[in-house]
Design goal:
Length: 154
C-alpha cells in the first residue's frame, strides 16, 4: 500500500456554510401540510361521489319499484281481459246450434285473440322499454356527471 504524502488540511480549516436545522423541518412541515390538504380534497370528492351514487341507486330502486308495479298491473289487466274473453267465448259456444256455427264462432274468437295478443304484446313491450330507460337513467346521469368532473379535474 502506498501513503499519500504532502500537505493536507483538516476539515476544521475548510470553509463550510452554517447548517440551519430549522429549514428541513419547515420543508417537511410544508410537504405534510400539502399532503393533508390533498387528502382532504380527495376525501371530499370521494364523499361527494359516494353521496351522488347513493342517491342515484335510491332513485333507481324507487323507479324500479314503480315500473314493476306498472308492468304487473298491465299484465294483470291483460290476463283479466283474456279470461273474460274466454268466458264470453264459452257462453257463445254453448249457444251454438250447428257444427258450422261452432266453427265460425271458434275461428272468429281465435282471430280476435291473436289481434288482442299482438296489441297486448306491443303495449307490454313499450312499457318495458320505457321502464328500462327510466330505471337506468339515474345511474347513467350519475356516471356521466362523474366523467365530466374527471375531465374537468384533468
Amino acid at each position: 500500500m502506498s501513503k499519500i504524502t504532502g500537505n493536507t488540511e483538516t476539515i476544521e480549516n475548510a470553509g463550510s456554510p452554517a447548517f440551519d436545522p430549522s429549514k428541513p423541518v419547515e420543508q417537511v412541515r410544508a410537504v405534510a401540510e400539502q399532503g393533508l390538504e390533498r387528502s382532504k380534497e380527495a376525501f371530499s370528492k370521494l364523499s361527494s361521489g359516494a353521496e351522488t351514487t347513493q342517491k342515484a341507486f335510491e332513485s333507481t330502486f324507487e323507479m324500479a319499484k314503480t315500473t314493476s308495479n306498472e308492468v304487473s298491473q298491465q299484465m294483470i289487466a291483460s290476463l283479466r281481459a283474456n279470461a273474460e274473453a274466454g268466458f264470453t267465448h264459452l257462453e257463445a259456444l254453448v249457444a251454438v246450434k250447428s257444427p258450422s256455427e261452432f266453427l265460425e264462432v271458434q275461428i272468429a274468437f281465435v282471430h280476435k285473440q291473436i289481434e288482442k295478443s299482438a296489441e297486448q304484446a306491443k303495449v307490454l313491450q313499450s312499457l318495458m322499454l320505457r321502464a328500462t330507460e327510466d330505471v337506468s337513467k339515474p345511474i347513467k346521469d350519475a356516471f356521466e356527471m362523474a366523467l365530466k368532473e374527471l375531465k374537468a379535474a384533468a
